[in-house]
Write the structure tokens for this entry.
Amino acid sequence: MTAILTNLFDGVAYGMLLFVLACGLAVTLGLMNFVNLAHGAFAMAGGYVCMVLVNRLGWPFFAALPLAFVSAAAIGIVLERTLYRHLYTRSHLDQVLFTIGLTFMSVAAVDYIQGSSRVFINLPAALQGQFDVFGVGIGRYRLMIVVICGLLTIALQMVLAKTRFGSRLRAAVDDPRAASGLGINVPQVFAFTFAFGCGLAGLGGALSAEILGLDPYFPLKFMIYFLIVVTVGGSSSITGPFLASLLLGIGDVAGKYYVPKMGPFVIYTMMIVILIWRPNGLFGRTAAR
Amino acid sequence: MFDRKQFSRVAAAAAIAGLAAVAPAKAADSVKVGLILPMTGGQASTGKQIENAIKLYMQQNGDTVAGKKVEIIVKDDAAIPDKTKTAAQELIVNDKVNFIAGFGVTPAALAAAPLATQAKIPEVVMAAGTSIITERSPYIVRTSFTLAQSSTIIGDWAVKNGIKKVATLTSDYAPGNDALNFFKEHFTAGGGEVVEEVKTPLANPDFAPFLQRMKDAKPDAIFVFVPAGQGGNFMKQYAERGLDKAGIKVIGPGDVTDDDLLNNMGDAVLGTVTAHLYSAAHPSQMNKDFVAAYKKAFGNRPGFMAVSGYDGIHLIYEALKKTGGDTDGTKLIEAMKGQKWESPRGPISIDPETRDIVQNIYIRKVEKVDGELYNVEFATFEAVKDLGKTKK
């Protein structure tokens, strides 16, 4: 029983992490209809910024986390204004080629600057180890991930559903022409959204260094996971990717624990089954855009 | 497509055959060593260490041997066997190298093997560690190690030192399976029991569920083999999950605690016992000098890959000395057989029968020395041959 609960907890933590990493992609892909395969590069940028701040400059971990967000968002907005916006109207193939090229460039750049070996972020002692709750082992670090990501998800959902900006964004996505006719500054809304998605990825990258490992190949290694989350979750809202992340996280952990021989395939099997059942993802729109 | 590929193969083979025919007649003043290494990609640290070590050796010993100037040509194969093969072809046909050397991973070393045989030039393997490699060409010689060497030794050591139940966690690829099988064979032969066997995917993002399974199996120790880069993640999650407090030790071949990464792994790694060929803390004077010179030149600690490269270029130098500068490949490989010398890792030699390395395997424990983490050697198994081959 306790093993089940420990696994469930690990699965939730892993799923939450996947969600923070991938939800920016859900926004750009689903809401802005832009295929951004370089999403992982922003996550990596955030991770490395956090690593440099904590390990080299001696910042406390919790102070470096917001900066991981800010710096990834800043890189995001610069690239959006200079490069990405020219590609919004281009075909998906062009977008894929451009962003995959960007990914390779980021890999080479980080490899050149920081070296190719895996890096770790020095964690405060308070975040290390596990504690027992009625025999269920709860990792401190994973608990922190669950808390941070849980709060973020609620905040995101509130912003999208309740605020003026959220309704502007949804309007801009549904019909950019009509939205700009109504006085909504569509490019600005998109730029802000894009940057925010990149920021979240940066935060995710910083958080994931401990669990997934951080090296220059991060954007390529985890691209598949991000895409699985978005395809399984559907890209019309953030609830979809959120539930998909949780499902995949729990499924992956449980699969590896109970059937270790099949472990690596569980996540793919789940994806295939879900997509056969619902080709547009769990919460996809019925009509393909 | 097929035709073109086939044509290029035939052309390359013809070119190599042509080269082999003229090679003995060629008397140049320089000796060229084609170094094929992963300089980019996930294995890049291997490539960098070997390249650094070779540079260091040539700084210390000069670039002239037996009247010939030694020239190193580095090619990056990113550990992809197809690229290795192309690079080897270019080096042999265009650059007319006298040696090919390097090879970060087993598939890369195997891809170049038929070319070494055809061109009759020595292939000096400085990293890749599966047993079969040297059997694939009579021109292959190895200065690194085989996984059988360290895995059998740690298996023997574990049974004798009160470890009865072991759970294994190995990466699911050739070297991982080699490590697992050799360990299991020796460990169970000595009376040990493997209670849990988990193979993790090579691109494994999260060890948590596997480690939880290990913890619930309550073994005395976990036998671990993961590619060098993942060792740190493994050790961190091992500690996070409290396996260290549950009294479960980590044992394995020394790849997990590679000197290259060891110092960044955190204190969780303290007490890990591994069997391996080299530790930067090896107490010989020669090694102290080597470590000091390497640190001074490149700013970090040499790992076992650096030593393998250092010894590889030494072997090339010695072979040239023995042939008096004759660059005939067959004579060079003969000259390499049975070479014996003192390396920073300790005394080593080249087995004249298998052309594989014979070396001491040390049992080491991770300890803190002057505030840094080191593998401190405390037991030695002398002159270990590659046990992966002897039974064939």
Notes: The longest helix of chain B spans residues 2-22. The domain at 2-145+286-355 of chain B is CATH 3.40.50.2300 (Rossmann fold).
